[in-house]
Design a protein that fits this description.
Blueprint lengths: L1 E6 L4 H13 L3 E7 L6 H9 L3 E5 L5 H14 L6 E3 L8 H13 L3 E7 L7 H18 L11 E3 L4 H6 L6 H10 L5 E7 L14 H37 L2 H24 L5 H32 L4 H24 L15
Helix pairs in contact: 5-8, 7-8, 8-9, 8-11, 9-10, 10-11
Main location: membrane
InterPro entries: Glyco_trans_2-like, Glycosyltransferase_2, GtrA_DPMS_TM, Nucleotide-diphossugar_trans
Subcellular location: Membrane
Amino acid sequence: MTVLIPSYEPDERLIGLIHQLVAADNRDIVIVDDGSGDNYKRIFASAKQLGCTILTHERNMGKGRALKTGFHYIKKLSSKDGVICADSDGQHLPADIMRIADVVDRLPHHIILGSRQFTGEVPLRSRFGNTATRQIYKFTTGTAIHDTQTGLRGFSNDMLDWLCSIPGERFEYEMNMLLQARSAGYSLTEIPIETVYLEENKSSHFRPLADSFAVYLPIIKFSGASLLSALLDYGLLLLIHMLTANLLLAVVGARICSSLANYTMNRRFVFAEDGPSEVRRSMPKYFALVVLILTLNYGLMYGLNEMAHVPLLISKLVTEGVLFLLSFWSQRKFVYPKSTGSTSKKPADC
């Protein structure tokens, strides 16, 4: 089993963790110095003397890139062992790292998450950030995960190609991993670990505004595309209904136009699918989903507007709100799945 530690401007806690890992088990340890600079060379030199492999970025490139650098290196070793990712700031206890390693051996094709329970004294920004991300992830995917931001994660060796292909250079990489896991054929398993925050988590390099924005960006972009399409849909719905007094024609005509706009925005800007082959693959699935959503849309609106006599605009707002989550989940899972776990594809470089 290889322990991979991305590290930026570490302190002596990194050396303490290495000593404990070496004492507990003679595992391979790979550390990625993510552009820490000359002031930290002494710490990385000490880690190298303890038997660790040190990979160095000339400048800070972000945690996601550091992890992919490590995955790429481990992949070239042609080892069959799994990989455990841990942070360098003392928040992950050696005993918990070993527990995750044991589960990786028993559960291939799973992402093993060291799940903090957030009991005791937890810094306010950490508690709030984890709660917000957990709720947004559940809303987006329909899956509940207790700790979406944990840096303690375990992977079987056959997942390395996929791990190298996931987009994201900073902290958003770890969220993208969770968002794409199921479509790539991997399950998520949480293992409870100790919650450790040292000195109010001052050593964290997470930037609350910039990195939070990057983590939530896929959801923000999808919501923006949906809002623009919805405005177009609402306008056309009211216009066609005013001209024809035919609800079915208004719903179908408005949805055809807005779905074309929504498909283009999601393919280009949300799920980053482009090129003729991606269009041929995703377009039939997208418009099959449109037919399903349209059927549900009309059924719900008919029940609300024609039977319950709810005003048309309110009926539309309620219907779209109900179908928003289904649309996002379906597009991520079936239309733009990024199924990079397929063994038939050329291995991806990091």
